[in-house]
Amino acid sequence: MPVSEIKIIKSGTITFDSFEEPTNQIRAFKKFCGVGGGSSVTYIRSDKKIIIDTGYDFEENRGKDNRQRNRKILIGALTAADITPEDVDIVFLTHGHFDHLLNFPVFSESEIVMSRVELEGHNSHFRAVNDNEGIADGVTVLATPGHTRGHCSLLCETDNLRHMTRSEMGGQIMGIGKLKVVVAGDAVITSSYFMQDKIWSYNPDFYSEEAARESQCKIQKIADFIIPGHGTIFKNIRKDNANITG
Length: 246
Prior knowledge:
Blueprint: E1 5-10, H1 24-32, E2 41-45, E3 49-52, H2 64-80, E4 90-93, H3 98-101, E5 111-115, H4 116-119, E6 127-129, E7 134-136, E8 139-143, E9 152-157, E10 161-165, E11 172-177, E12 180-185, H5 191-195, H6 209-222, E13 225-228, E14 234-235, H7 239-245
Helix pairs in contact: 6-7
């Protein structure tokens, strides 16, 4: 069966927005204000239940207290969405940065999955997957290198979705339809970076601006909606134009 449920478990934050200069003062003040820069965490359900990325805030702090704090926040967000770690069959990690993966021990009974290219040279028990590989019904790995060499996103093709909009009069069922949603990781770091054609290249292992732009173009042509690495879901208003010009 195709994807029947998508939930944003935790919206990620960002230390430098698309219109800001990447200065140490801005980074320090945002951290002072509690902006941890952790990734978004997304839940999808088809024949398997999948979490994409794990949302670890203040990644430079890997001490016991911060690990426990991050674990508590993630479990709280899961609980609010009526999900337990034991419910999750697969944890898909878009890439190997700590702000996306360090909470993976929360899912001790789940299979941890990452791109084969991203796992090269790492001594890890994670399962390696390849571009265009299906990991569940309606869920396909999408190679999107650039931010890192082995970065991958997930393409989720939904069932014919509906949503109940509740009101004092009893509510209304709204037809949504069949959609293609790309959970993009840091191939699309936020909606503002995407709309301003900007690439996050501040990580020391940034792979290639050319590859990053090709990956964004690939996502732009496919996705009806995009879930970025640091932020919440947004409609891809460029899709029709991409398909006309591409």
